[in-house]
Amino acid sequence: MSRTTSTLPPKQPPTLTPKQVATQVLRLAQAVPHLAAAYTQALARWLGDPVLRLAGRPIITECYRSPERQNELYAQGRTKPGPVVTYKRGGESNHNQGPPTPALDVAFLLADGSVSWSGLLLSKFARLMKYADARVRWGGDWVRFKDRPHFEVPTTKKGGVGRG
């Protein structure tokens, strides 16, 4: 029995360009401190795992979001093309608080440079986020609208704890 060896180069984890690193730093700085700390800890655990880091690199796609940007997203799937991605109008989302804001959205940079919102990868990252800080809420756990890229921590608004 002969063994064949692969001539393919070993798979490398995705890396960020200097511009992407700067963007990530700016977005993380928009988060409330305990959410930023949970993300940083979860990211370190992810990148420290030899299997997970090959699957993709977590990136923050949005943190603070202006009410105008929120309204653009709200229009998607309604008056603009694309799938519905939010049920919150400008001023109603936790992304609209701050900065610092109690919400951030995550996706994964893949080795080929594309971005993925894989539910499987997000669920694995959610476990790490919740392990890092028990206050973290993951949108994938919500009953009515699964918002898998979304992570948030409770906030006190007028009238009590808010969500969205």
TrEMBL record:
Gene Ontology molecular-function annotations: peptidase activity
The domain of life is: Bacteria
Q: Which SUPFAM superfamilies match?
A: Hedgehog/DD-peptidase (SSF55166)
In this chain the Peptidase M15C domain maps to 91-153
Q: What's a Pfam family this protein contains?
A: Peptidase_M15_4
- The protein here is known as M15 family metallopeptidase
